[in-house]
Known about the structure:
The structure holds 2 protein chains of 2 kinds. By secondary structure, chain A is mainly alpha-helical. Chain A has helices spanning about 1-15, 15-35, 40, 60-75, 85-90, 100-105, 125-155, 180-195, 195-210, 215-220, 225-255, 270-290, 295-315, 325-330, 335-350, 355-385; strands spanning about 50-55, 95-100, 115-120. The interface of A and B includes residues 11, 216, 217, 218 and 222 of A.
Amino acid sequence: MLLALIRKELIALSRDLHGLAALFLMPLIFIVVMSMALKDVYSPPLSSLPYALDLRDDGPAAKALAARWAERRGQPLPLTRDWQAQLKSGQFKYVLIIEDGFGQALHDLKAPETPHLRLLAEPGMEPALFQGSVAELMAVLGEARARSLATRFLGTVPSGIADLGRFVSGERFEMRQHPTSVQHNVPAWLIFGMFFVVSAMAGLFVQERESGTLARLASLGVPNAVQIAAKAIPYLLVNAVQALLMLAVGIWLMPLMGGHGLSLAGVDLAALVLMLFATSCAAVALALAVASFVRTHGQASAVGPLVNVLMAATGGIMVPTFVMPLAMQQIAAASPMNWALSGMLDVLLRGAGPMQVWSHAWPLFLFALVTWVVAALRFPRRVRA
Amino acid sequence: MLEVRGLGYRYPRATSAALDGLSLVAERGSILGLLGPNGAGKTTFISHLAGWLPVTQGEILVDGQPLSVVRRKQPTRIAVAPQDYAFYAALTVRENLECFAACARLSGERKRTRVADCLAFAQLERFADTRASDLSGGLKRRLNFALALLPEPELVLFDEPTVGVDPQSRAFLIESVQALARKGVAVVYTTHYMEEIEAIADRALIIDHGRVLREGSLAELLAESAARLRLHAEGLDDATLLEALSRYGVARLQHGDALLELAPGVSPATVLQAVEAAGGRVRQADFGRGNLGELFMALTQRSLRD
């Protein structure tokens, strides 16, 4: 009985091209588009940002600093007469101005009255990129000033005096994967796609209730639990196929399209499966609960996507949680999609094992249990309606 | 086979009862026609038989056992063929039959046999591999019909099984229902088409507002209107005609015709002679043919329902 109903569900799904597109193609397209669109957010192209240099000091110190900057950021574009307009329009991401007297200021022990090194960024430059550029400029200046003062007072530049890079170390602790847009977008949109079964199942329930098939099954003595399981199991399988497909897209398709590839090297597969299963249980149980409340096709087509998009918007799927203000991050923590995403990122980026991600998995299982109970209590009413 | 005694039901927050002491009997091998306007309580009665609503007042017995017990032990003894196309549009005819056969706990050889038998009974063999969504209205009705028969139920309730089908399909479905009864199945047949009840029912039941208004064999019910004379006469105004007729029974006008319930012992020939003697010319007269539709309308009144 259960097998026959599961088989029915899978046959019906395989013949529903629109449904398949919504369940598989939609998250796949999101992964590709969003990964490509957000590629630079995770890996800013610092060395290829178009910039111009306004060298107003023709001394050796200014030229040396310009050369050092060019080593790190690439060669500047020619400074045009209307460079302000180009900067304002974003054709130049920034213009580096080395004022006259820069060399003298570098030699003086006193700090200058006004800065001799100015970085003018275009209005739309991302804050992180702007701050990073200013910080990098200060580091380059620091090296130059150390060399200058050493020459002035010691007559020579001792080895290593200006090698600031050897004083500072910055690294991601126990990083297994370099964070890329793909690393975020594959789990994020996979989770979104998995929860998209909410829409599919809500529509299916309305259709089967209206056609009388739910009632016919009930009159044949098919228990409610079997009817619910017959809906849940095929969609758990759908979620599994979605997971395989989306991971494959991240691993193989994204590099072919010029994006970063998803790597599962060092990833604990048991933890990955645990998180995927917990997410799937939550998604399917929520789908059953929503389906047991909607009465019409109109409600099904409105409520399902609404629930999905709201959870995705607040849960860090559409916008990564780390760029959200603190208040929004707290709201995000209430979204099951956020629990799932946090766990998945722990697995994919931090190499977390099953025990480490259990704190993300159990709320999903609890959520699944509660929504499942709601669905089971509501289901008989839907059959009778 | 089926005995319903004083069945009552009131939906939550409803101001009146959907069923109010409904009683009926359906025997094996016979067809019970169930007639009633919209809101009469037919759907509520079907919902009870299908097990979708609990029996809260009165009782439903199947061979002396409470319905709830029968449904728990052998739910497929009673089948409901709903008015809706209660099957999966994406599946083929055969896939639908196989799916619902499995749900009716059929398996192995019996399942294969029943699927084949039902395909043959509903003459759907040629369409076995056609998706249900691609079937015509008549074929969909036949599939709906076949699905109800899969578990070989002892009692089948057909809920308006011929709605929206062409005359050929309707004739086929009616003959199939009769064949089913001949095999010993108890049939309860609801419809709004009076001629279908007249064609196939052994007994009929007219219900409204959850109550039985009239019950009896078809002959008994039709006999109620057999003593009615309908005539159309010219040359007399309505008042004069009614006055002339009222000496022979209870007369009234309906759609331009005069209807006369003949008093005992009065022959229609006497009435016609009296009309002619009063100066009227009888253009049309109808007597001795009972009409279930008229009885139905007389009992349930003419006011529109939901």
